[in-house]
Structures are given as structure tokens and as C-alpha cells.
Amino acid sequence: MVAAPPRMSKETLDALCQGPMPVDDGWAWLYRLFDWLAPNGSALRRFSCGYYSPSVLETAGSGRLYRWLGVPQFGRIIPTGGVAIRRATGARMAPYTLAGTSLGAARDFYYRTCVFETLHIPFLLALLALSVQRASVGRVDYAIQEALMNLAVNFYPIMHHRNTRRRIVRLLNRGPSRSESQMERA
Question: Nearest 10 degrees: CA dihedral of 174, 179, 182, 186?
């Protein structure tokens, strides 16, 4: 019998659902809106925290699903922060990278990936609806074209953000390092 892969611990999930959310990363207005729409303890807050939390399927085999889908390779060339793009342009692309080695920086980046994924979802759904509509009227060529565009512009970026969160959760589940906990006690 194979043991279930590690999932986000209840303590980590509770801490992420409670906040505090970042305030200085340019997305504070969106975090405040989320706090207003889904206050702590509400059903909507629990649902959204559950949605963004990596599932057992996502964490199985240290992200085997994402490797099988080619998400890490896509992540290298993604225009808004891929390693190959950053090396070619010399750009830092700070909003799309982990800002530091602390648990606070990892939590902030976790929230940022949630925001970036959320921004892709309406476009994914709109292009999906357009593809279905085109196919229903017999324009299969356009439906395929829009489905492929949706795959590249929305689906893979969403998968990239989910994979990034899976990796961040692995760090957050470890808890503070010895040096961090010693600094907090001092």
C-alpha cells in the first residue's frame, strides 16, 4: 500500500486563510476586495482556500502530473517570468518571483499566484465558451484555433501557478528553519 502524498497541513491552510495578506506588492486592492467579499470564517473563504490549496492529485509523486503535462517546460518560457525570458532580457520581473527566503515571502508569493490564477480564469472561461459556440455553428476550424490559444494563454499559465503553489506549500509545511525560529525568539 502506497502512502498518500503530503498535502497542505491544516495549520498551514488555516494560516493562509487567516492572512495577513501582503499589502505592498501592488495587489493590495484585490486582497482587500477578497477580504470584503469573503471575510475570515465565511463559507466563501473556506471554499476559495480549498480551491487554491494543492490537491492530492497535484502533490502525488512530487508534482508528477505537472511534469507529465509539460508545465515546468512551459514555465521556463512563459513571457511574464520564465527563466529563459529573464535570462534573454535581463529583466528581474519581481512580481513573478519569490522575493526572499523567509516564510513570509513564501506566503506573499502564494497569495500572488492565487491572484494571477484568478486573473486568468475569466478569460479561460470566455474563450472556452467561444470555442464551444464556434463548434456548435459548424466552425470547427475557429473552435480549434481558439481552444489552442486558450491552452497557451490561459490553461498552461493557470497550471504553472498551481504548480508554483504546490512547491510553496511544500516549503510552508516544513515550518520555520532553525535560524528563523532562533531569530524570532531573540
Answer: -130
In a domain, 89, yes or no: yes
Q: Indicate the average pLDDT of the chain.
A: 81
Quick check: is 35 in a domain? yes
Instruction: Give dist(CA 10, CA 117) in Å, integer.
Output: 22
- pLDDT tens for 56-114 read 898 888 889 999 999 988 887 777 666 777 777 776 666 667 777 778 888 888 888 88
Tell me which residue of 69, 88, 66 sits closest to 77, measured CA to CA: 88
Identify which of 182, 52, 172 has the alpha carbon closest to the alpha carbon of residue 102.
Answer: 172
Residue 185, in any domain of the structure: no
Burial of 54 (0-12, 13-18, 19+ CB in 10 A): buried
Q: What are the b/e assignments for 5-28, b being 16+ CB within 10 Å?
A: bebbeeebbeebbeeebbeebebe
DSSP output for 124-146: HHHHHHHHHHHHHTT-HHHHHHH
Question: Within a 10 A sphere around the Cβ of 124, how many other Cβ atoms?
Answer: 17
Identify the pLDDT of residue 80: 67
What pLDDT sits at residue 88? 78
Residue 116 has pLDDT above 80, yes or no: yes
Structural domain count of the chain? 1
What pLDDT was estimated at residue 68? 93
